[in-house]
Amino acid sequence: MVENITGLLHQWQGGDLKAREQLFELLYADLVLVARNRLSQHGSSTLQPAALVNESLMRLMESDAGYKDRTHFVAVAALRMRAVLVDHARARAASKRGGNVEMLTLSHAGAAPGEQDMVYEVLALHQALNRLAELEPRAASAIELTYFGGMSREEIVLVLGVSLPTVDRDLRFARAWLNRQLS
């Protein structure tokens, strides 16, 4: 199955649209599960898992990423999911506030009810991850792949090309740093 997915990825990159459709059929359920896990951590949302996956796949089709294998594809899809979540949160916050949102702090989260909590949480996490990426890019990538991609430590090892102890150190550092930033 893994070889089949890798083969389909390479065929798609060669211009075979039928291979792309087969690939999406094979991986769609996995991506919906990742999306459902992301959205369930934030409570109710107007964004449904299928919509998150569909928008992410649309963005994937527009990119020229050279996918090596299934793990790399899912990692890129996870990053696209992050972008979709952030865009959705920005749009929701802007419509609630009556204008565009540039920067938010966590102080807004306590004053916002229900779904607004999720909106501010996603935006605050996005801003914190951007700051972490400036400080420690690999640690930021590891936490993105865990949080947005639902990847295991072993899968992150493959995507980042580092050892398991390195991934563990990066995740510990990133979690501690984010906890300090978001508290």
From TrEMBL:
The keyword Transcription applies. One of its GO terms (biological process) is DNA-templated transcription initiation. Belongs to the sigma-70 factor family. ECF subfamily. It comes from the Bacteria. Residues 3-182 form the RNA polymerase sigma-70 ECF-like HTH domain. It comes from Novilysobacter ciconiae. Pfam families: Sigma70_ECF. This is Sigma-70 family RNA polymerase sigma factor. GO terms for molecular function: sigma factor activity. InterPro entries: HTH_Sigma70_ECF-like (IPR053812), RNA_pol_sigma-70-like (IPR039425), RNA_pol_sigma-70_dom (IPR014284), RNA_pol_sigma70_ECF-like (IPR011517), RNA_pol_sigma_r2 (IPR013325), RNA_pol_sigma_r3/r4-like (IPR013324), WH-like_DNA-bd_sf (IPR036388). Coiled coil: none annotated. Keywords: Sigma factor, Transcription, Transcription regulation.
